[in-house]
Amino acid sequence: MPEIKVNERLCKGCELCTSACPKQCIAMSDKFSTTGYYPAMLAKQECCIGCGLCAQICPDLAIEVYK
Amino acid sequence: MELVNKWPAGLVEMPLRYCPGCGHGIVHRIVGECLEELGIRERTVGVAPVGCSVFADDYFNCDMIQGPHGRGPAIATGIKRSKPECIVFSYQGDGDLASIGMAETIHSAARSENITVIFINNAIYGMTGGQMAPTTLIGQKASTCPRGRDPKVNGYPIRICELLQSLEGASYLERTSVHTAANAIKTKKAVKRAFQNQIECKGFSLVEVLSMCPTGWEATPLNSVKYIADKMMPLYPLGVYRSPEQREQKEGGAA
């Protein structure tokens, strides 16, 4: 099952990955990260196809794609 | 399961200090990946600009020099001429390259220096507080033109790729964007080709990347992406403006 892991230390909550995801499976967390942002998270793991488009658009290299 | 996208060897593993949604991080990753994939990281020297990316010497995992404002191509020329075995790239923003560094940019292109220039065009001075840049769009608001850029007072935006296209020395000119994932993939191809040209000694290569500046534009990152697609791309059309093949054909025809 492909999945992504968002590094909360790097994510600045810009939400660009949510718009890049073709399956709309990324959502923003409602909890602050230690850096003070609402980080992205994989909301629907079963939808993730591991395409890596979120990692292509992420300006902070916060997304790791596992396939 | 296996990690598909490892941290590129061309970048130091540390958090980037850019604003949320800034395009610099995407271009940093692309350059870092290209240095790794082309196997040139250990002999690459980069020139960091003045601007938001002034800290690029912290991020890129290769030799770096931080130059005075706008002088990137001049410094890169010096490094390349004294050490031709090095791969030299200059990373510049629009205030740096299109305003104060215009002379260096044009003359290094005219001399066809064998360097690679990565030009980030976000139509604003980001670091100093959102002032109008030479590339600011007509009607775009900035802190020095709060009612929008008026061509009668502030003149018209400069299109660098079109400008350099008229010079025979320019070997490879392409304008790309990083506002969507697909465009980021295209940008990577362009940056890779620009480095490849330098390895093959084909002359001056410049990749102009349309990038978002949510802080300077006073927009959310998602609205900045829309702004590039709706407003910037009609003024700055994407595409290849000069390729080494075109140039060789032209020179062949002239001879």
Radius of gyration of chain A: 11 Å
Task: Report the CATH superfamily of chain B.
Answer: Thiamin diphosphate (ThDP)-binding fold, Pyr/PP domains
Assembly category: heterodimer
CATH class of chain B: Alpha Beta
* CATH-defined fold name of chain A: Alpha-Beta Plaits
SS content category of chain B: alpha/beta
The amount of helix of chain A comes to 10-25%
Name of the CATH architecture of chain B? 3-Layer(aba) Sandwich
The shape of chain B, in one word, is: globular
Going across the major beta sheet of chain A, what is the strand order?
1-4
Whole-number tally of structural domains of chain B: 1
Please work out how many helical segments of chain B DSSP would assign.
11
Number of strands of chain A: 4
What portion of residues of chain B belong to β-strands? Answer: 15-25%
Unreliable stretches of chain B: none
Element pattern of chain A in H and E: EHEEHE
Low-confidence stretches of chain A: none
Question: What do you see in this structure?
Answer:
The complex is a heterodimer of chains A (67) and B (255). By secondary structure, chain A is α+β, with helices and mostly antiparallel strands. Chain A has a single domain (3-66), classed as Alpha-Beta Plaits. Helices cover 15% and strands 21% of the residues of chain A. The model of chain A has no long low-confidence stretch (mean pLDDT 94). Chain B contains eleven helices and seven strands. Chain B has a single domain, classed as Rossmann fold (3-Layer(aba) Sandwich). Chain B has 255 residues and is α/β, with parallel strands linked by helices. Chain B is globular. The A-B interface holds A 1-3, 9-10, 12-16, 19-20, 35, 37, 50, 52-61, 63-67 and B 1-5, 7, 11, 15-16, 18-26, 29, 178, 180-182, 184-185, 214, 220-222, 225.
